[in-house]
Write a structure and sequence with these properties.
Rossmann fold; two-stranded parallel sheet; 41% helix; globular
Length: 167
């Protein structure tokens, strides 16, 4: 399986949730986030030239049977669609514009199926976290009074984890 944006908070959560099932994850990220991907059981790959070929070579005889996109770039979607035999097994949380044309799945926001799914799995995720089987990386904390500054910082960079507002 390919996970684009594997070092993001969503990507890290997915790595942890799939590890007990023995799913092999080929995760894309910037090179400075490779250790994080390895920490949670993924195999890191840098974005950029030759990504499709590098992922295909790494997969070898193992079929890439699914892809999860956290970034929504043309590169991520093109590679996912090229390497995953069935476009319905490609899921994106960011690539809304090409969904109808290319036949992949989009989840997130207020999409009714996404809302229903989150409602169904939330208690399971809380249980995993309580048992310390699910780590949510927090990159920074801010006093609640600094929420505006936190939002501005978040809009301008990839924080490498969640921001937490502390009352």
């Amino acid at each position: 399986m390919i996970v684009h944006g594997a070092s993001s908070a969503v990507g890290v959560s997915l790595l942890q949730q799939l590890r007990p099932f023995g799913v092999r994850i080929l995760g894309t990220a910037s090179e400075n986030n490779f250790d994080l991907i390895r920490r949670f059981g993924g195999e890191p790959f840098a974005y950029g030239t030759g990504l499709q070929e590098r992922l295909a070579e790494a997969a070898g005889r193992d079929a890439i049977n699914a892809a999860y996109d956290n970034v929504g770039t043309d590169e991520a979607l093109d590679v996912s669609l090229a390497l995953t035999p069935d476009p319905s097994r490609v899921v994106s949380i960011a690539g809304f514009s090409r969904m109808a044309r290319d036949g992949y799945q989009v989840v997130g926001g207020n999409i009714p199926d996404s809302v229903r799914f989150r409602d169904e799995v939330r208690s399971h995720l809380v249980e995993l976290a309580a048992r310390r089987e699910l780590v949510v990386p927090v990159s920074r904390t801010f006093p609640l009074a600094d929420a505006r500054a936190a939002l501005e910082l978040l809009a301008g960079q990839h924080p490498g984890g969640k921001f937490a507002l502390i009352p």
